[in-house]
Design goal:
- By secondary structure, the chain is an alpha/beta fold.
- The protein binds 2'-monophosphoadenosine-5'-diphosphate.
- 2'-monophosphoadenosine-5'-diphosphate binds next to α5.
């Protein structure tokens, strides 16, 4: 990497930031494409978000990513916000525009592109979301925006699922988002569903945990997507595979949220070969053998 007078800078604001894989994604892309851009982590405390965004603009930063806990807090400091990000109320990518930054949610577009890369669609599908926290809520917005036929939110605490469903239905003027308790999830009438595991249950070191092990439910799942990527194969994914379904983890979501951010900053299109190369570098950084 050669840094000179024309080098552009992008970075990640979050707290903590030291375990991030984003520098691997962006610096690998710059190297591959020969783009004079460097990506660095910035540890930013919550009370400093406003000055961080203003300071980034003053320092001519090309763009930024925002991660926990700043994804909602950055919004009020932006010049403009993309429609899906605005509906969700969470921004993870800031793109420099005249006078400030425009915010996007490439986490959700990244999930969509990761699924597309595995020939998994949302359009016209019945989608079952497991969980009703922040991640599930964002995925529910994505599913409705991508014309899912029906979206079920299954959660241990039904009231939480109800609040999310009401909010998403109201945002799009629809009633396709329904709720069900986790214990009753297998009772949904549809078969061949796409199930997206949006809780932290099963995350390392609790590799043997799973939100549900109901056989009848797994028989209905043709595709299971776990947002978790550590472990590389979660118990949820194992159960989906054991019942004949296709399963994928969340690593490609992480890859593509970065790729989409990089494309927005540099106005380029990343090819499949380039994406595959970055994924390999991410796995190396994580110590995952091919
Ligand atoms: P995030 O914002 O990262 O999505 P969160 O808001 O903490 O995370 O949400 C966690 C989700 O995981 C919730 O849906 C939670 O269910 P409850 O609403 O019933 O609490 C779910 N969850 C967490 N631990 C769980 C467990 N042991 N069994 C079932 N669901 C669990």
């Amino acid at each position: 990497m050669r840094i000179d007078g024309k080098t552009r800078t992008c970075g990640l604001i979050g707290c903590p930031v030291e375990h991030t894989l984003s520098p691997v994604i962006h610096n690998t892309l710059s190297e591959l494409l020969g783009i004079n851009m460097v990506y660095v982590p910035f540890l930013v405390e919550s009370e400093a978000v406003k000055s961080a965004v203003e300071g980034a603009y003053a320092l001519n930063l090309l763009g930024m990513n925002a991660t926990v806990p700043h994804k909602a807090a950055v919004i009020e400091h932006l010049k403009d916000v993309d429609d899906l990000a605005k509906r969700i109320g969470a921004v993870n990518t800031l793109v420099r525009v005249s006078g400030g930054y425009k915010g996007y949610n490439t986490d959700m577009n990244g999930l969509l592109r990761a699924m597309q890369s595995e020939q998994v669609g949302i359009d016209g599908e019945t989608v079952l979301l497991l969980g009703a926290g922040g991640a599930a809520r964002a995925v529910a917005f994505l599913c409705v925006s991508q014309n899912a036929k029906k979206v079920y939110i299954a959660n241990r605490t039904l009231e939480k699922a109800q609040l999310v469903a009401e909010e998403v239905n109201a945002s799009f003027g629809t009633d396709i988002v329904k709720v069900i308790t986790m214990d009753d999830a297998a009772k949904i009438p549809e078969n061949d569903i796409v199930a997206i595991q949006c809780t932290s249950v099963g995350l390392a070191p609790n590799n043997d945990d799973v939100v549900t092990s109901d056989e009848t439910l797994y028989q209905k799942i043709k595709t299971g997507v776990d947002l978790i990527y550590n472990p590389y194969e979660t118990r949820f994914m194992k159960l989906v595979r054991e019942h004949g379904g296709f399963a994928m983890n969340g690593l490609k979501m992480l890859l593509y949220q970065g790729i989409i951010a990089y494309e927005l900053w540099n106005q380029v299109s990343i090819t499949q070969d380039q994406a595959d190369h970055v994924l390999k570098k991410m796995k190396e950084a994580m110590g995952i053998a091919e």
